[in-house]
């Protein structure tokens, strides 16, 4: 059989993988398939791009550091802004201190700073009196997932990767369980008759190596496996708020108008484009320091985080009661807005941020997909949780040629794509230069991320564990 590698999913993970795999001379044919290539509609299109490299899992910390190294090579892909975590309670401060020690141990430049220093670094997002201590990560920053993904796709195209738009409805296996190809659904034929459950297959593309980089949709394609693949889609509210920075200060690091933007920030004259100034509120904005974005801020005790997007601020919150799972049925990683739970949580979040506390909601006008705007743009974005908060990335045992690379954050995407590329190319084991520590690190990563690690576990239990982890996402370090 001819050797063809198929990657399903062209979000940041699949696109990065297409780039890294196509750099290897031993891959003659690579096909990247997505339901919608332009625009992208998965989680990547909605990611606000906070990059905090420290993770309680050292495997993830390493992959984040590696990803940042890669993103920094991409024009406008990543900017070092620094990141701050603030706490006010004794327990919260103790946790910050522990995280600081662990981060330093991992080799990251982390340090405890005073509330005054935190407010000095991020005057728009930190009120000195609200916190008692802060943890500062000097090399963290903000990524633009859309810019990065577009870059990787262009590189992959240049190196001969073929792009196909279509829905993969199933995987074909041979007699020994080995991958032989994928089935592409016929979109047009769907729903033509009155049998919505009957899938029409348009064509089969043969392949001996298949990677599912399918984000929140991954479990669906893994139904035939004899191991649970607990990738659980959850809802998450995020809000953009336009501000009127004082004239002359706004030489932002990103331009708002773009030919390949996120879903909301696209149309000319959109509420976030610089020309429309629908805000009547003047916020007490401090001039941008050295024209750099403010450090992002996390308030773990309030489950709130915020960042500077240039001409607007972004706020997200996990403080919305029970974790919400959802069914991602229409191939778009956006869920219906949940007025009752999300609005109050976001209003509460805004009070923590000096720059936003003075703004009230203003007008709201409905946009496509249940989104609202002017001057705020809120949306319910979907991403994936897993029972142990680690991605599922690696080879699937017993299914020769099948690899998963899912439940991966932007923060870890390039690093994990490189890891999978090496795994597929057997590159790691061919390279005899490694010392013992490198070997141990590699083996630990393979074990930590193994897609088969939930073998034998009960699906409902795994789902519940994932959702519990989601509601405690900022109660880090313990479960
Ligand atoms: C509101 C929000 C905030 C977030 N904040 C951050 C953050 O600050 N930092 C961070 O690191 N991460 C953040 N994330 C998470 C991050 O966005 C995702 O983890 C990441 O984008 C996942 O990338 P991906 O390529 O795996 O998935 P996706 O971008 O979802 O890509 C998967 C692709 O697979 C395609 N696909 C799936 N199934 C099929 C099929 N059967 N046939 C064809 N195509 C298929 C889809 O169309 C999709 O394009 C956030 C996410 C959201 C929604
Ligand atoms: C570690 O990474 C996971 C994503 O896999 C994320 O959910 C979690 O919040 C991260 N932890 C920290 C402390 O950033
Ligand atoms: C990413 O960059 C594009 C183009 O500059 C911009 O339109 C978009 O708003 C940026 N996205 C985020 C999340 O900051």
Chemical compounds bound to the protein: flavin-adenine dinucleotide, 2-acetamido-2-deoxy-beta-D-glucopyranose
What's the total number of strands?
A: 23
Bulk shape:
globular
* Biggest sheet: strand arrangement: 6-7-5-15-16-17-14-21-18
**End-to-end distance:** 47 Å
Radius of gyration: 22 Å
Helix content: 25-40%
Mean pLDDT: 84
Beta-strand content: 15-25%
| Class from helix and strand fractions | alpha+beta
Q: Give the low-confidence spans.
A: 246-284, 360-374
Biggest beta-sheet profile: 9 strands, mixed
Q: How many helices? A: 12
Structural summary, described in words:
The chain is α+β, with helices and mostly antiparallel strands and 479 residues long. It has 12 helices and 23 strands. The chain has helices at residues 12-22, 58-71, 90-105, 115-121, 145-158, 218-221, 339-351, 354-357, 410-424, 427-430, 436-449, 459-471; strands at 4-8, 29-34, 50-51, 78-80, 83-87, 110-113, 133-137, 141-143, 162-165, 168-173, 179-185, 201-206, 209-212, 232-242, 296-299, 304-308, 312-317, 334-335, 365-367, 371-373, 376-385, 392-395, 402-406. The strands form 5 sheets. The protein has a 9-stranded mixed beta sheet, sandwiched between helices. Helix 1 packs parallel to helix 9 and helix 2 (58-71) packs across helix 9 (410-424). The chain is globular. The structure holds flavin-adenine dinucleotide and 2-acetamido-2-deoxy-beta-D-glucopyranose (2 copies).
